[in-house]
């Protein structure tokens, strides 16, 4: 297991670095491909097990949605998409009878919006002035949050954070993730010369790590409703593509 995880990391980290440092158009192409694969992976494991045509269509629609938002940058549509994703997430977390959440159309639309709308924000972020530096800050923050939550949870975890969603995550891990993630926001912003008022950076030091943890929990809730452990076996030792992107989607 460790060998597989190390091999994926050894291959994936240089590719990620190359993508982040690439010109904006190449970054957009690479992220859009990831969005398409992520949406297709999501639809592939919904409870009804849809046809290959539906799986391919989901990837195409999510990619088209993301690139449209990047090209036109229409805030109202972004807001509508975020509201829809939030409604989808709340339904998954709060619906009393998960067996009723098996309609193909609802899962398909939810999956396309979940990956397409949230993923599009990485494209829009990269288009901002200083966007490349912000992408690095967000990546470092997400990785630091995951690392802090995992390490502190393993060493000191005693109190379960949300048993019905993810019984392995603890409050101690939550504190560790929030702490290390917050430090990463402030440290990376200073190191890269990201210019923002201190109150904004302090707010981001709280919000971004929390978003990373929330994204992890949301993905766990989705998989529980689907009845799967991992989205796929694409990345040996890690699970599927979305199993690695869960926190990044919400942080973006």
Descriptive key words:
about 250 residues, single chain, 2 strands, two-stranded antiparallel ribbon, 9 helices, mainly alpha
Sheet/helix structural class = mainly alpha
Helix content: over 70%
Number of strands: 2
Query: C-alpha Rg, in Å?
Result: 18 Å
Please write the string of helix (H) and strand (E) elements. Answer: HHHHHHEEHHH
Sheet with the most strands, sense and barrel status: 2 strands, antiparallel
Distance N terminus to C terminus? Answer: 29 Å
Commentary on this structure:
The protein has helices at residues 2-21, 24-44, 52-72, 75-94, 104-127, 131-156, 171-192, 198-226, 241-251; strands at residues 160-162, 166-170. It is mainly α. α4 (75-94) crosses α5. The chain starts with a helix and ends with a helix. The mean pLDDT is 83.
Question: What is the compact description of this entry?
Answer:
The chain is mainly α and 252 residues long. It has 9 helices and 2 strands.
Topology summary:
Layout: H1 2-21, H2 24-44, H3 52-72, H4 75-94, H5 104-127, H6 131-156, E1 160-162, E2 166-170, H7 171-192, H8 198-226, H9 241-251
Antiparallel strand pairs: 1-2
Helix pairs in contact: 2-3, 2-5, 3-5, 4-5, 5-6, 6-7, 6-8, 7-8, 8-9
């Amino acid at each position: 297991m460790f060998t597989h995880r190390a091999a994926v990391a050894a291959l994936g980290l240089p590719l990620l670095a190359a993508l982040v440092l690439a010109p904006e158009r190449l970054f957009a192409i690479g992220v859009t491909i990831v969005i398409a694969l992520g949406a297709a992976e999501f639809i592939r494991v919904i409870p009804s097990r849809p046809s290959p045509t539906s799986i391919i269509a989901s990837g195409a629609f999510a990619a088209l949605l993301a690139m449209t938002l990047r090209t036109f940058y229409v805030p109202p549509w972004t807001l509508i998409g975020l509201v829809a994703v939030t409604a989808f997430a709340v339904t998954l977390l709060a619906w009393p009878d998960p067996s009723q959440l098996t309609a193909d159309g609802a899962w398909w639309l939810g999956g396309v919006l979940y990956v397409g709308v949230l993923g599009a924000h990485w494209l829009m972020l990269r288009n901002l002035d200083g966007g490349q530096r912000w992408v690095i800050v967000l990546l470092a923050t997400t990785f630091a949050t995951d690392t802090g939550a995992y390490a502190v949870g393993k060493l000191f975890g005693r109190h379960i954070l949300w048993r019905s969603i993810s019984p392995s995550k603890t409050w101690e891990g939550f504190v560790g993730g929030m702490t290390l993630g917050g430090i990463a926001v402030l440290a990376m912003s200073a190191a890269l010369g990201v210019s923002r008022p201190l109150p904004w950076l302090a707010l981001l030091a709280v919000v971004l790590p929390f978003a990373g943890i929330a994204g992890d929990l949301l993905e766990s809730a989705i998989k529980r409703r689907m009845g799967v452990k991992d989205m796929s076996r694409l990345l040996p030792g890690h699970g599927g593509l979305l199993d690695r992107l869960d926190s990044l989607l919400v942080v973006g």
